[in-house]
Amino acid sequence: MKKLTEWQGIVMPLDRANVDTDAIIPKQYLKSIKRTGFGPNLFDDWRYLDPGEPGDDHSKRRLNTEFVMNQSRYQGATVLLARENFGCGSSREHAPWALLDAGFRVLIASSFAEIFYNNCFKNGILPIVLNEEIVEQLFAEVLADPGYELAVDLAKQQICKPDGEVVNFQLEEFRKQALLEGLDEIGLTLQKADLIRAYESKRRQQVPWLFNAPGDI
Amino acid sequence: MAAQTLYDKLWQQHLVSEQEDGTALLYIDRHLLHEVTSPQAFEGLRLANRKPWRLETNLAVPDHNVPTTDRSRGISDPVSRLQVETLDKNCADFGITEIPMNDIRQGIVHVMGPEQGATLPGMTIVCGDSHTSTHGAFGALAHGIGTSEVEHVLATQCLIQKKMKNMRIKVDGQLAVGVTAKDIILAVIGELGTAGGTGYAIEFDGEAIHTLSMEGRMTLCNMAIEAGARAGLVSVDEITIEYLRDRPYAPQGEVWEQAVSYWRTLVSDENCEFDKEIVLDAGTIAPQVTWGTSPEMVAPIDGAIPTYEQMQTDAERKSLQRALEYMSLAPGTRVNSIPLDKVFIGSCTNSRIEDLRQAARWVAGNKIAENIKLAMVVPGSGLVKAQAEKEGLDKVFKEAGFEWREPGCSMCLAMNADRLAPGERCASTSNRNFEGRQGQGGRTHLVSPAMAAAAAIAGHFVDVREA
């Protein structure tokens, strides 16, 4: 798993609530069997004026200049500021893959949908939940100040604003450690193989029908 | 022992280990796979030189990319074809049971699983698909996972989880004739909002829930995720048990009796406590129609789209304006006056035999309206299709002008060739009305199968209670 300890970057504001994973990466791009290459299609329907398909040369498509991603002041942004329930809908991990591929490593919103939130951590992306007032204030500051950057210190669970103000954020300890150390979660679980086997032999007694191989149904 | 909810019981029975901070290792009994969210997981196993932990818990089926028209020449889109072939190859390489595209049992993973009895009460069930919540209808703990977790389950048979909170949604009384499970869940989402269930496992309970068929309960739990809840649940009763009898994967003989007596314990204890509780009166629920770009933007058929004056905050006004611009609708429009271009009956929400029977009742002896460019029925599985054909439902639909297709996810998310053109407006029995969900620029209104069928005949939404 990808590590993240400290991060600083330009903030891109996406002023919409309930941004779903279909909007983050539309379905036609889910046909890929790879984990990479989704960046040019992040927010595809909002970002381009003409429709796109996998295999197209996306650099030749017409850009929607009204969309934040296409505005010069947000070029190179790596921190996404969003609204409540970001990442709702489909469980597609292609959504964090697309964000990562486009350079985003930190997401800030007043809430995230659960499956998306969980998927972010598996890919070295830190989603930060802040209360609505602070999110509102950040939106105002980002809009007022071109080139606005935030610095994140994961170990301290702090965001540092350009004026030096520090905002604390909450995070589950396990998720924090996994991200700080770039832990291989499967490897960690396999260290408990004996516990898993012990569980299975107990369970086999209780619910034997779940242990009959279905064979060729 | 303290009184437990159904979710508490399922959680506790699957705990392999638990840390002090509540992070737990949860055992997974059934892992369903499809072609879209699994290739990178298999690739991960190969890269790390790992093998599936327990092969027989896995069951795979291609559903998102499959064509719903003639399949004799395979899949014409090379990118879709490669994804389905990759699933075939991964299953063959690792020894996982797959129901391939041309098998009569093939279908949408959330239709196929229960139909085969691969979904059983008391199981933990996961799949790289958010609508895995469907299987909670059987008193199983079922939820969607991402691809990294698909790999984790393949390699370890476990997931790293934190316990969710408990919510009960009790629907008392009886539904009016013509009102279905789809209308219940849309009304619930309207009440709760699309994030109202975040962090909860939702148990649906009450007279109106326990009189639903398993098909209805699956529709209900299917859309728990649209309220933000990863898992929906209905406790086990006689209807659950009867549905499972003699299914291929279900236990048989003496073991069946043993299983049934365990399954009967899968109910929330009396006096157990829920973190949140909502009570609805079934009699007040009207057929529902979504009008916006989020499932919470929903109104009863005899209602209207809200006006800006009804919005409480600027953010709400902005979101209403955005949705209505995309949907090309005016605030205050009566729901029954919205004209349609296409009708889609299908998806893991509403493509089971009961759904097709309900829709067929509205179609029989009628023709689709002139303004309907395409009305299609996509059965949830080959077995649903065969059953419907045995009952003559295919003829009913075809005579009315519907297209009768092969099973798959189809125009619920338009990964195959079935999609809306920009600006087209569709009555759909699926689960998401997001922008572009059924095709870029397409406009989706979510409804029940009866409402979709009646709309196909009338050309606009009508109240199916007024028959």
- Class computed from helices, strands and strand pairing of chain B: alpha/beta
Form type of chain B:
globular
In the CATH classification, which architecture of the largest domain in chain A applies?
Alpha-Beta Barrel
SS content category of chain A: alpha/beta
Biggest interface between chains: A-B, 60 and 80 residues
Strand-residue proportion of chain B: 15-25%
* Total beta strand runs of chain A: 7
What percent strand of chain A?
A: 5-15%
What portion of residues of chain A is helical?
A: 25-40%
| Quaternary structure type | heterodimer
What does this structure look like?
The complex is a heterodimer of chains A (217) and B (467). By secondary structure, chain A is an alpha/beta fold. Chain A folds into two domains: 6-183, Aconitase, domain 4 (Alpha-Beta Barrel); 184-217, no CATH class. Chain A contains eight helices and seven strands. Chain A has a seven-stranded mixed β-sheet. The longest helix of chain A has 14 residues, at 193-206. The model of chain A has no long low-confidence stretch (mean pLDDT 96). Chain B contains 15 helices and 19 strands. Chain B has a five-stranded parallel β-sheet with strand order 5-4-3-6-7. In chain B, strand 3, helix 2 and strand 4 (58-60) form a beta-alpha-beta unit. Chain B is globular, with a radius of gyration of 21 Å. The chains are: A alpha/beta (217), B alpha/beta (467). The interface between A and B is large, with 60 and 80 residues.
